[in-house]
TrEMBL record:
Residues 1-27 are annotated as: Disordered. This is Erythromycin esterase family protein. It comes from Halosimplex litoreum. InterPro entries: Emycin_Estase, Hydrolase/PRTase-associated, UCP036794_erythomycin. The lineage of its organism: Archaea, Methanobacteriati, Methanobacteriota, Stenosarchaea group, Halobacteria. GO terms for biological process: response to antibiotic. It holds the Pfam family Erythro_esteras. Residues 1-15 have a biased composition (Polar residues). PANTHER family: ESTERASE, PUTATIVE (AFU_ORTHOLOGUE AFUA_1G05850)-RELATED (PTHR31299).
Length: 445
């Protein structure tokens, strides 16, 4: 098998490779049994032939929504493998919708480039605010989708959507432009609030209680007024698409405000739960709005996993659980794990500097240890194919796997650097990579 893993500079003191924590004669009593069910992946290079993914194509052929996870938000090999799988879905299975864990309104600039070739994709990536996607690997995916779309009928081109709702600027700006262009008779007494949301955002997380309450109330009054305006607007059909799109911008604004309200009233985890629900809702809107009926979803493992479960902070319902409730077996969640190497994240020990980080050994009961004992990674496995009694018993309990979001805290090894899943309930399949490298940030002046 081939890989393009390269060493990067700036790793933390906890840098680890599989050999650091596995004995030279590394073994696991179940490794051979899992190896018999693991399907090799020849390369992470997204430009290479897709023949080695034929078994995955067969498994995904009946899916309507494919959730492509990642154990970190900054791993080059994950991004490149996901790029290959997106190619598989688009080129072999005729998927024409792609969704990213990124803001709905801002990400439409990427869609403009992917579908029509308009704009600069580097500027569009910078405009969605997420350093996680401001990388060479994601840019390569965008360019690949643009190349695929070039010359095809418009209704057969891949569309690119964000499904997240974390900022008010994008939807508020879109609504201002919409009303300015239409010269519409709308509730203009709320224009100042809309302009503030476009320019400054809500800014309620650290605000005094009375200030936060005032800002949230003003935003909610605005949303109620615009909802009423859209309810009363009629169309002859010529601008139905524009009305539907901008009503979605309004809903995105509302989702962001709802999350902020939940965070102020009930804490950060309530805000996170609201966000996952919003992402699932927006993905469903894309499927309902577009003529195509299958979509590839790119997000973190914690979002795409389909198992609502008890967390240390309460009941968690990830986006994937909402999607599983809605689409049932038509939703396929593919998780990712790795043994060692680097990834990029915001390091809390270095003033939240974005840098290359790495992990120490996984917990003793981690499934990562079993995965690392299976030869010839990368590979993938479908949990429905695991019928061996020993493996079934092994996976029939929560086991840790690598799981890092945007933040790296080396002193929080179990809670924020690993997550525990009953893997066959959380994911339909899993991709394993042995050695990883940092995703490559786009160079900017």
């Amino acid at each position: 098998m081939t890989d393009d893993t390269t060493a990067t500079e700036g790793s933390t003191d906890s840098e680890s490779t599989p050999d650091d924590w596995r004995p030279a004669d590394a073994s696991h009593p179940l490794a051979d049994r899992l190896a018999a069910r693991a399907v090799p992946i020849d390369t992470t290079d997204p430009a290479e032939d897709l023949a080695d993914l034929a078994a995955l194509a067969d498994r995904l052929r009946g899916a309507r929504v494919v959730g492509l996870g990642e154990a970190t938000h900054g791993t080059r090999e994950f991004f490149r493998l996901k790029h290959r799988i997106v190619r598989l879905l688009v080129e072999r299975l005729d998927y024409r919708l792609f969704a990213l864990e990124a803001n709905f309104s801002e990400t439409l600039a990427i869609d403009e480039y992917v579908v029509y070739g308009r704009g600069d994709p580097r500027d569009a990536l910078e405009g969605i605010y997420f350093w996680t996607w401001d990388t060479e690997e994601v840019l390569a995916l965008i360019e690949s989708l643009r190349e695929f779309n070039e010359g095809r009928p418009v209704d057969d081109r891949v569309r690119f959507y964000g499904v997240d709702a974390q900022f008010t600027a994008g939807p508020a700006e879109a609504l201002i432009d919409f009303f300015d262009d239409r010269d519409a008779d709308w509730p203009a007494e709320h224009r100042e609030t809309l302009a503030t949301l476009a320019d400054d955002g809500l800014e309620v997380d650290e605000a005094p209680a009375d200030v936060a309450a005032s800002r949230l109330a003003a935003a909610e009054d605005l949303i109620d007024a615009l909802d009423a305006w859209f309810d009363g607007e009629t169309t002859d059909g010529s601008d139905a698409g524009a009305l539907a799109l901008h009503r979605r911008h309004l809903r995105t604004l509302e989702q962001t405000v709802e999350s902020a309200r939940a965070g102020r009233d009930d804490g950060v985890q309530a805000k996170a739960r609201r966000r996952d629900r919003a992402m699932a809702e927006t993905l469903a809107w894309v499927l309902d709005h577009e003529p195509h009926d299958r979509i590839a979803l790119w997000a973190h493992d914690a979002h795409v996993q389909r198992d609502g479960r008890e967390e240390h902070w309460g009941t968690g319902t990830p986006m994937g659980a909402h999607l599983a409730d809605r689409y049932g077996d038509d939703y396929y969640a593919l998780g990712f794990d790795f043994a060692g190497g680097e990834f990029q994240a915001l390091d809390v020990t270095d003033d939240h500097e974005l840098r290359a980080c790495s992990l120490g050994p996984p917990p003793e009961d981690a499934a990562t240890r079993l995965f690392a004992a299976v030869d010839d990674p990368p590979w993938w496995v479908d949990f429905a194919d695991i019928d061996d009694e020993g493996l079934v018993e092994y996976f029939d309990r929560e086991r840790p796997v690598r799981s890092v979001g945007a933040v790296y805290d080396p002193d929080d090894e179990r809670d924020r650097l690993h997550d525990e899943f009953r893997l066959p309930l959380a994911f339909d399949g899993l991709v394993f990579v042995a050695e990883t490298s940092r995703a490559r940030p786009l160079e900017r002046e």
